[in-house]
Amino acid sequence: MLLNKLVVIDLETTGNSPKKGEKIIQLSAVIIENGKIVDQYTSFVNPEKSIPVFIEELTGINDELVEGAPLFAEIAPKILEILDEAVFVAHNVNFDLSFLQGELENAGYNTFSGPSFDTVELAKIALPTADSFKLSELSTQLDVSHVRPHQADSDAYVTAEILLHMVNELSELPLVTLEKLLELSSFLKSDLELLFREILKEKQAHVEDLPLDLEVYRGIALKKKAPIDRVDSDWEMQHIDKDNIEGLLKENIPFYENRTEQMKMMKAVSESLHESSHLLVEAGTGVGKSLAYLLPAVLFSKTNKKPVVISTFTIQLQEQLLHKEVNTLKKMLGIPLYTVLLKGKNHYIHLFKFEQSLRDHDPQYDIVLTKMQILVWLTRTITGDINELNLTSGGRLFLTRLRHDGWHLPHQKDPWVGKDFYLHARKNASDADLIITNHSLLLADVASENSMLPSYEYLIIDEAHHLEKSARQHLGIVLDYLSIKFTISQLGMLEQKQLFYKLEEILQVHQITDTSRSFELDFQLQNFYQEMDEAMQLLASVFYKKAKKRKGIQKIQLRLSETILKSKEWQPVKIIMERIVSDMNIIDRQMYEKLDKLKEKTNKLKDVEKAIVEEAYSFLLEWVELKTNIKNIFLQELEDYVIWLDGDIRSLPNSLVVQAQPIAVQSEMQTEIFQKKKSVILTSATLTVNGTFNYFMQEIGLNKKEVKQLMLSSPFHYKEISKLFVPTEIPDIGQVSTDEYVEAVSSHLIGVAEVTKGRMLILFTSYDMLRKTYDLMKDSGLLEDYVLMAQGITSGSRTRLTKNFQRFDKAILFGTSSFWEGVDIPGEDLSCLAMVRLPFSPPDEPVAEAKSEWLKEQGKNPFSANALPEAVIRFKQGVGRLIRRSSDRGIVIVYDRRIVTTRYGKAFLQSIPNIPVHQEELPELLGRIEEWL
């Protein structure tokens, strides 16, 4: 690499803003010359002010360490000498560079004026599939030793190593890819164009043959697709000793423990597949259910030459099955095993549209960055699944233009059809033994005429407790204002030069006339956009007037009951929606006329024109779906559906979301899945309530006669490794105000946190209660040594919050809905799980309210038939967060005394493993926790 001198800088500071008087407390500079690390300079810096507790906790740097250190002004000449004629490099360069410039200026020195590289920006391009671009997570992914995260010397050295790794990765890219990257790089935020120019220059000087697994097609380099090469023969299965499965598992799985429950499940799954019967299995944590259904599925599929479809709810489990469990089985059985992970077609990139997008010279940052990410990714991806990419939100919007929804022009006219990822995935699926998919695609496929999945009769549904909710969402409708705005803006008026303008240009070039004149349609569109804005303003105003508002709560809901739909305030909404649907009918009729005329001229269209026509047809699919949804929600009576509005009162109408869902899905599930498939096996760790599957079966439309049932408890010895506490001095939740209840719980939690040294996950059923508890605990001043992280308050996704929680010794994590399940924190990182209240859905929550009315009409008790069992299953999922491995130990604290004071409280305790329950006041409880942990 010929950029002679790169200096990687990292700073630790007392805060985020030098303008607010924050100071550098440590600086490190790693010097790279001619592609090698040659030196490192590090110094603590005396900030002449106290270091905040949070910074001390994060960095390990305290006031004593910096007391005798030089002032920044004393080391400034050395820094400027190091930076002389260098490129300034940092991970998030804007922060480090602006902070350093501020300090140099304050000390009376000239600021740095050379080029800068941002390694975050570079990582997005060089490593487009990385889970995270944070330094600590990149170092883990790339296996770079990171001894002391958040200390400048360690961070700077790791950044330098990651930089060299990325330069190396980019140097390996084909020449055509590097040429396109250089072309796009001038629109980046840091001066990476210099780096791409240098890498390309070196590549041109030493041109090598293309690696054997890559090909260049129409100027784009991509990985060759490997077809499934079936070599099945009858002898394969004969050498597998099906009577010695345990022996095989012991030989092939390190530290394998003999599990009676796992063997029982294998036997039941195998029988169900061979007898073509349905099966329900609840398998507690630690049973090893993935292998317990995968092994019989593989043996059945290979013996009978019939595919088995496996559906899961989370992407994590799909990936785990494909990359971990299936690989174990391949090795163990010594047979070729053909497994495909299949998703809906909009998960795959449309290569023809992407090729043409490269000809659009759009300087918009997110679009440029995303194009660069895709170019690099195409040289590495085997699947073409766009979920592999880690994109910005703007990048995801751009990707909607490239998504796959089939072909609208004759697809043999698409030069990329032979390289198409979607067709390749379908072809592979038709030859596969196991097809792994998700509930969403499974349900879409069941209802679709153009089936994505090949014909199958044997189905295993893991994470089955999500099936009913997934079915309701799949059969439901969601209209959110921002998505509507984005969808309709893609068409644009003539002056906006979007799809409508581009189509008009093509029509003129090819001298095609149609019945609608462009200025008339332009006027129609202008009118439509105004009416859509008016409609949303009107809807927001009805929502604001009618919704129940609570003090301090910004996010509110309103169920569109019969009363509201017949009220005089609702009539103007209905009238304007009728006009909108009428406008949309006129617009899509005229658009289709234009497109059909262009379709007739397919042979005369240039590729770039064909791509615009394809994009316009794709857009019209969305347009027609939007029109149908508006019609269904506002102009037709949806029978047995619940319709409601969601929104944040601080940002209406932008935050407005309209939803409709069927109240029940039993009949659809029964006719479309259970009657059509020979064997459906449903499994999860949480399917039973009070020792029966009745609630789950009622929800998904299964009756006892047509399904076998198996309950397998966890092999973990919960009695020895866990305890459940119910504090006695907390007031009954129904007897006091929310504020009083939260105050009592908060002061109790502070005491518990000090004994458990953090390592605590606190679960809430409402965001409002979470925020109040978080504020009280933070403002108490008693937890200054602790890091408090809260969903919706501390930035980051659930995964990021969970990872950060595991990084700190004294951490407390606050979570609502999504934290009750799917959070996996094994070992000592989590020792205490606190539930602030039992997880009942609020009775006025739209779906709960509609279900309650529906059950009353059937003569059932809504509480015992729905509210209680639903809460018990969520409670079981919550408790399941604590013990993830047999070596874990921990305590559960339930603050909601109804668990011991009401008759129905027993249902919660009887549905979890046999954990000892203690009712105690705070001093005894703290003593017992301290002694036990």
From TrEMBL:
A motif (DEAH box) lies at residues 462-465. Pfam families: DEAD, Helicase_C_2, RNase_T. Signal peptide: none annotated. ATP binds at residues 283-290. One of its GO terms (molecular function) is hydrolase activity. It catalyses: ATP + H2O = ADP + phosphate + H(+). It is an enzyme of class 3 (hydrolase). Its EC number is 3.1.-.-. InterPro entries: ATP-dep_Helicase_C, DEAD/DEAH_box_helicase_dom, DinG, DinG/Rad3-like, DnaQ, Helic_SF1/SF2_ATP-bd_DinG/Rad3, Helicase_ATP-bd, P-loop_NTPase. Keywords: ATP-binding, Exonuclease, Helicase, Hydrolase, Nuclease, Nucleotide-binding. Its cofactor is [4Fe-4S] cluster. Residues 248-510, 270-493 form the Helicase ATP-binding domain. It comes from the Bacteria. 3'-5' exonuclease. HAMAP family: DinG_exonucl. Belongs to the helicase family. DinG subfamily. Type 2 sub-subfamily. This is 3'-5' exonuclease DinG. The lineage of its organism: Bacteria, Bacillati, Bacillota, Bacilli, Bacillales. The gene is dinG.
